[in-house]
Amino acid sequence: MERGAGAERQMKYVLVTGGVVSGLGKGVTASSIGVVLKSCGLRVTSIKIDPYLNTDAGTMSPFEHGEVFVLDDGGEVDLDLGNYERFLDSVLEKERKGDYLGKTVQVVPHITDAIKNWIESVASIPVDGKDGPADVCVIELGGTVGDIESMPFIEALRQLSFSVGKENFCLIHVSLVPVLGVVGEQKTKPTQHSVRELRALGLTPDLLACRSSQPIQENTKVKLSQFCHVPVANILNIHDVPNIWHIPLLLRLYFSMATPPDLKSWTEMAETYENLNSSVKIAMVGKYTGLTDSYLSVVKALLHSCVACSLRPSVEWIAASDLEDESARVTPEAYEMAWKALKGSSCILVPGGFGDRGVPGMILAAKYARENKIPYLGICLGMQISVIEISRSILGLERANSEEFDPQTPHPVVMFMPEGSRTHMGSTMRLGSRRTFIKNPDCITSKLYKGSAYVDERHRHRYEVNPDYVGKLESAGLEFVGSDESGTRMEVVELPSHPYYVGVQFHPEFKSRPGKPSALFLGLILAAAGQLQPHLNRL
């Protein structure tokens, strides 16, 4: 795939579809392909098309669809967009998430033309600060081939492949090759059926990306080639690997490029992680611990920071409700295990969330961290939890609470944002990249951000610290070290008497990258490992 000089280049499209079952890793595959192409000197953009018609992913349950990822422009999108940003290291705009395509299902008469035109339009938007469109657009079609809601999109993509020409369109189909435990044989029938269904819809795979627990055997490749009409050389084996950074390295082996891919940094990250011997225990006290994808970006940010500290992350998933007194009575075993995990961890993290379930347990976790000098990072709700806990424990305001959990509280230390809407939940939050000004240059947050007077981080919240209580909270020992430009909206809080007790209203996990970890996550891991002060002294 060489780029011509002078003449205007035709956009190349790489479509990634999935078959057999969901959750095969289409997003990781698509973003890894983008990494390989980008490492060859090509400019890469990406589009994610989700067949669900929810135009606001922010209102979808984390239990059903995992984490809601927030873009710089405030778009609330599918968690796969986070993989694209982390892998491609580019800032995606709202248009790139594909949920506008869901709207066209309802309002555009000539649906397939509308979808095709929209894809071409979005693909041409510059993504890397340079003029002109990218060289390659990687498109991931969400869902599984055969889903009825995917049909209009598949037809539109079939038309797109015909209109741009075979030389400018490549289809990669991700499928599963399971192994029967009894005989250990790799079964090709699910992939055969998936490809047959895709071909019946007018799309024939150029490459097959086969997901498996072990490397695909040669006879399995031959069988897949014979029945799926894909050359053996075009069958990619994406087997289970020790860490996600190996995926671009696996894919590199299958592509013949005019410019060899430069994946030195990815090789180093993958090898570094494999050679890590020491680990750090991190207590993740949350509401949605039953589905870890609900906190995908938090987990990735912890991984980035741990690798930077030469540590392997060991996340203790603790359901906040299991820490509560009620749990001791109803489920004593879960209660005992939760507290054992919390007390055995080197640091505590309380991530974001909505609703009152598990809040008493989070407050207990924040109190334990404060009283026992355990490094603590509270994100969004986690910051509000620390404010509520200190209001109750130190200020003596026993019924202090958030208006979200108790609208009648006499001490609303956390209040509903004045500009918010209580009835229309979709896109009513403070969203996207906002500037936070650091007020104290000597605080830990300022030092971790290398003395910057301000930081731009992404927000997603409806509630905030009540400015009427800031004075009282600071008299209790809290210090609000960061705020918005008005100085009244509190964004960062610290406890100066504590080794590392930081709460932030924004979500620093969304901008963490491999090799460029979030400053505040890095601070948490450094503090847990006893390396924070030496690190700050070097800055």
From TrEMBL:
Keywords: ATP-binding, Glutamine amidotransferase, Ligase, Nucleotide-binding, Pyrimidine biosynthesis. GO terms for biological process: 'de novo' CTP biosynthetic process; pyrimidine nucleobase biosynthetic process. Pathway: Pyrimidine metabolism; CTP biosynthesis via de novo pathway; CTP from UDP: step 2/2. InterPro entries: Class_I_gatase-like (IPR029062), CTP_synthase (IPR004468), CTP_synthase_N (IPR017456), GATASE (IPR017926), GATase1_CTP_Synthase (IPR033828), P-loop_NTPase (IPR027417). One of its GO terms (molecular function) is CTP synthase activity. It is an enzyme of class 6 (ligase). CDD domains: CTPS_N, GATase1_CTP_Synthase. Belongs to the CTP synthase family. This is CTP synthase.
